[in-house]
Amino acid sequence: MEKELLTLNNISKWYGDSQKPALVLDHIQLSVKENDFIIILGKSGCGKSTLLRIIAGLINPNEGEVLYQGKKFTTTLPRLAMVFQSHALFPWLNVLENVELGLEALDLPPSQRRRRALEAIDLIGLDGYESAYPKELSGGMRQRVGFARALVVSPDILLLDEPFSALDVLTADNIRNDLMELWIEKRMPTKAIIMVSHNVIEAVELASRLVILNHDPGRILKEIDVSLIYPRDDAGHLFQELVDTVYTTLMKTTEPLAVLKKGEKIKVAIGMDYRLPDISIQQLQGLTDALMEPPYHGKADIFALAESENLSITDSFPLFETLELLGLAQTSQGDIELTNSGKAFCKADILERKKVFAYHLMRNIPLAKYIYHVLQENPRNRIAKEKFLRELEDRMPSDEAHKNLSIIIDWGRYAELFAYNNQTEMLSLENPEVEG
Amino acid sequence: MTIPFTVTETVPLSLNPLNLPYYALQTILRMFYALILSLIFSFAYASFAAKSKKAELILIPLLDILQSVPILGFLSITVTGFIALFPGSLLGVECASIFAIFTSQAWNMTFSLYQSFMSVPKELTEVATLYRLSTWRRYWRLEVPYAVPSLLWNIMMSVSGGWFFVVASEAITVSGNTILLPGIGSYIAVASRAQSIESILYAILTMLIVILLYDQLLFRPLLAWCDKFKAELTANGQLPSSWVLTMIRRARLFQFFNKLWFGLLEALDHIFQPLSLKVSDLEKDHKNIYLLMGKTVIFFFFLFFFFIFIFYGFKAYSYIFSNISLKETLHVTILGSFTLLRVVILCALASLVWVPIGVMIGLNGRLMHILQPWVQFMAAFPANLFFPIVVVIIVKYRLSTDIWLSPLMILGTQWYILFNVIGGAASIPYDFQELTKNFHVKGWLQWKKLYLPGIAPAYVTGLITAAGGSWNASIVAEYVSWGNKTLEAKGIGAYIAANTAAGDHPRILLGVMILAGFVILLNRLLWHPLYLFVTTRYRLD
Questions:
Q1: Cβ(B105)–Cβ(B155) below 8 Å
Q2: Which residues from B are below 8 Å from A when comparing CB atoms?
């Protein structure tokens, strides 16, 4: 039994006032032991970054506590270090100075500080770049500096906030391998790593334990121990099977309510507060067309489909979700199948498609229905955007409300359910005024 | 009412051009003092406003009002007070002049700093928290460096604008006495009284050299140096470079001074770092007696200022209206409308001239690289040096002052329109030009569909700067003298200038307040909404 390093006890976090809180994290319970490489997986907006920041002590939870080796703490600890998604280097400090910044809290004499910084720079392979400024470095090099700054404090726990997602594929692979080498060969004193990711393959490749987070609110859906030996072969059977499991779990985060007539269509019950996936209608149409055509003829394995469409699993995810939400397709066991409505959508021409889309939008997305009816009841059929925004802000954090509304406006415009004028910020039923 | 004062020594100003370098140096020094004052003020004010939510509530709206008061209005109001502070010496006038320049710089710089402090990227502040930087080090390693580029840019623009005010404030007539501080502005004033065009040309030449040196020795090196503070990490294709900076950086002597400088900084850090940590510890302890005391002191400090503000506001109000009838107030408002009319017409005329020219220059890359520095240079050049030349023409041909004095108001500020239009036109993506070519869109249609919308945000920015500058300039432009003749145009600027000359305090105050009212109203009702509209509607990205 490994020693317990860190414990999260019933962590909850919400935004807004306590009367109508917008819950982000709901009673998260997690324990981190020595030699754990935990990856927290979830869709964007599920609060995984917030969770990491709570562990780091940057944000305080509304409820619950974080225990480090059995002791509660509320501020940042020198035994924890974090690597940021956008490297977060100070542009006016050179590499050495940026790395030395990590030692700030330890209050070391200058010579010792310099020595440790140089060691960390060596370790991460940045030799010779000590006096370079971040501006002179490539994205990958910058992220290496980010790693060096975190490792210089010899942290017990290393926190990684999607450190590879802003990099191109090859660079990300390169740094990932170097990190895993340090980790597996125990060349760094770090006892545990907690990483946030939305990349399923990456997660299965690296983690010793996967924590899958639900969203609305963020809840731990499943913890999966991964015992495959490093380095893992992503073409291997066990690997693929695991990816499938993870993926299916992630897809299940919208729970089906009831099965209607003869399992013809799964009705997904969502509310006004459902966070709509941010997708482009163009891509959605491309995906359904591909699914309809040979070799799939309406049913496909999600991996094969994503690959043939040149989409990463992560990118295709919101598209599948949208199809399912609208009732155009349904997923099960890692497969996706078009429903009858989905097939009708594919067969229709441009104008007809809009009608099919509009019909399913009205039927399945409560927000669209709500906006349409409110506009209809208004004598001038025109209402300011803020009204809907305020309505949504009662149910979710402000930035989520903005995002959701702009998504539904985009969908509504495509479906020609309602029009929107960006200048006046008014939604209306009529066609937009044509300007000269 | 006149305030009695005497200046025992009046320095005789000589028109000998050999004295010009000395006068120029005096003018530059004044500028420097003002700049240092502005820096101290803006750092203190902006830091306080950014750190304290309560202070922010008062400080930021106050700054907005201060920004709207015409700079030469500050001079008119404060000069008698400063003279009374140092009876019998030029020091009071010197202070007034420096204060006027200060007011032309401080507000912009403070706003820029405050905005930078408030917009430090979230991830960088998280790094600072994570690695537990003390308040002291967080300030100097994160917040201040982040603010440097935009602050420096603001200083440059402020100094450019400042030359105008230093020239205007050196020679000032108060209560019937003309006081001359040694400097280029006074030299010009003496030359106009002596009706010596030759001397005026000498002064213009000197100013040209001063600004050129300032640009090459200070502006460019600083701009090149501050590039490393820019937060965006994309390497810029064309980095600002300066031969002076390169030379300095390579010199041995510089490296020595560099070491000395960093040694000093380290020493300072050693003193303040423990202090800052101690204060942070104290802050955690909510019931600490020192902390409570500090908070109480700050509270009373603010209360004190609040009461002073109310008290003097009330006093000024009763002071003005015990001396001035409502009818005169109405009259001054009408004068303000005259000046408003001038500003509007001049901005329109300047736009008609400079927008087409600016677009032409901006679309031609080579031409732009040659001309843009010169336009910038023209914007920095104090236009009031040219005033006497225009006045000579008006006197000679007996032109109507109401019309022909007006162009003086925009003489210096029109360059902002040109400058911004060039920048705007240069940033129109080439694709759009090719597109219009492809569809054979030419002539007026091309202007209407591409160029005018393309430059709109930049043009409006320039227009706002130009209009603001014109309001300021009206105080000197509507009231000028040549020899012993004084020319006056009907307007609020002339009203303020004439009453400053006569030392009529209530009327100066009234004039400045109404002028400031015009500026605030215009900002709120026209410029602000227009800017918002244009930047959201015509943004090209």
A1: yes
A2: 121, 123-124, 126-127, 129-133, 137, 141-142, 145, 148, 228-231, 233, 235, 536-537
